[in-house]
Every structure is written in structure tokens, then in C-alpha cells.
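Entry for the shared binder. Reason: the reviewer on the internal report wants the predicted structure included alongside the sequence.
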Amino acid sequence: MNSFLSRGSIVSVCCLYALFVCQSLTIASQDPKNPGHEQIGTVMGRAVYRDQLRTGKNVTQREELFRLFAQPVKEQYISDRRKSLIPTEQEITYAAAFFCRDQQIRRLDDKEKNMIRQQLLTIEKQLRTEQLVSSEKQKLQEQQTELQACLDMPCRTFARFMLDRWKFQRHLYLTYGKGRILWQQAGIEAFDGMYRWLKDREKQGEFSIDDPGLHTEFYAYWTKQKHGAFLTRDQKRIREFLSPDWAHKLPRAEQHFKKLPEAEPNQK
């Protein structure tokens, strides 16, 4: 693998992926807190309240702001661009075959399958015993189909995780003025592109953060935080990010992206 997913970084990616799987398997069972009276903003037309910030020992305020404001906007954005941003079955199959060459990923895949089997049992029980409206039943059946596919295809979930992230970050880089990239545990981020994208979503009214302190904290990742040598314009790294080894046979889609003029966040 090239430096976008090198042998040295695969451990970090696997750890973050395992955390993502655990969270995704449990979050559906968590009831949201009842909203308090102090509204701190809106997202996709819905009010957001201060006591929805679930900060704690291992959760920062900034992470919670991303969860409450950026994540719903991102999900809607991707849903509106399904053809270019949601991986196809062919893409998942190709990427899964590539990743399964790595023994560490295969071991992680085996452990993850046990969690998938447990979730399938839960879904099967819900489908048999609960009084569901048609939309709820359809959603459970779609989850059931996806989870069963993960059991049937080795490394499928890991491939989907990587493709989802890479397609979105690549799209941001090519659509929102290119700029610098940032190495993170799960791979490369389109650092400047994501900053411009969020500012654009905010300008479009898809979210607002009314508390000035929280608004500053939300963008501090781009405007104040030091990222050192992990933040770069190095053209070799950018080429590897745009076309990693495992994606060489995936369709190229640059022509579908609207290019916006370059502009830099106020990085100190």
C-alpha cells in the first residue's frame, strides 16, 4: 500500500474503524436526551439545545459540536449526491478484495463479524415481535440486508468504511478549492476543502451556532489548532490521496465536481 494507507498507519486505521463499528452498533439503542430550554443553534431546521452536548471523560466539546451540527449536514449532503458519494457494490467488492490481503484487517474483520451476528439476531427479533410501521420495517430490512452482506463478503465493512470517508474527502478537495490536506488516523482529510464546505453550508442556512463561544470552538480545528507536519500541500501526498492503490480501478469523477476558487482558513 502507498503512504495514504501505509503499513505504519494501518494499526491506527483499524483501531479507529473498530471504534466506529462499536459506536454504530450501539447508537441506535440510545435514547436522545430530552432537550433543555437553552437553544444554542439549529441544524437542518431543527433546534439544538445545550444539554445535548454529551461531554465527558473521553468526549470533547468540539467533538460534540461536530456530532450535533456537522454530522446531520454531512449525512444530508451525501444523501443528495448518492450517485457520486455512496459506494457502489462493485466498488465495495473491489476494495474489499484489496484490503483482505492484509492479515491485520482480516483479523479485525473476523472479530467484527461476531458483533454483526448479534445485531442480526436483534433485528430478526424486532421484525418478529414488534408492531412496526412500514417505514420502520423497511429500514430494519435494509439494515438486515447490509449486515448479511458483511458476513458474506470478507472485509466488506472495512472497505465500506474506507470508501465512504475517501469519497467524501476527495469530493471536498476537488470541489472546494483543493488546498492543504491533513493526515489523520483514518486517512487523509481535505483540510481546507472541509473548512470551506462547512462555511458554505452555514451560509446556506443548513446550520447555525448562536452561542459565540461555541461557534468559535466549532471552527477552532481549522483556525487555531496546530497540526504541524501532518498538514501539507505536498503534491506527492495529494496524488496518493486522490488515487490510492486500493482505488486505482474505481471510476474517476472529477468532471462532475464544481470547482470553487481557493481561499484559506485563518490558520495560525
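Summary line for the report: The radius of gyration is 20 Å.
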